[in-house]
Every structure is written in structure tokens, then in C-alpha cells.
């Protein structure tokens, strides 16, 4: 999933863009969704524990996930 896809999910689903933390959005029906790039699924097994922890800490500071900021840590 590239940033363009993430942005389109936020614009299409979120009732208030950038209102939630850590990639979570709430749609107009009040249902919560977490937008998670595919690359994140491999992080726990393919990255060092230190890098994985840095990425998790970075994500905690984000509302919408910004892939470019995460890629700087890899």
C-alpha cells in the first residue's frame, strides 16, 4: 500500500480526516477502521527488535500513517 492509497482511504472513509491516532479512522456510521500498510505486517519478523520498536514509537505520534517517515527508520 502506497501513500496515495492510504490517503484515498482516509478521504473516502473517514468522517473527519486526521481525527484519530495510529492510523485509525471512524466512518460516517461510527465504525472504526485501522488503515495499515501491507509492509507493516512483515515488520515484526523481518526487522530487528530495535527498529521495530522505533517504528512503533513513530506510529504512536501519527494520526494518518505517513509511509515516508516510516521508511526513514528502516
Automatic annotation (TrEMBL):
Cited SUPFAM superfamilies: Glyoxalase/Bleomycin resistance protein/Dihydroxybiphenyl dioxygenase
Domain PhnB-like: 2-36
Superkingdom field: Bacteria
Gene3D superfamilies: 2,3-Dihydroxybiphenyl 1,2-Dioxygenase, domain 1
Protein name in the entry: PhnB-like domain-containing protein
Annotated source species: Enterococcus cecorum
Lineage: Bacteria, Bacillati, Bacillota, Bacilli, Lactobacillales
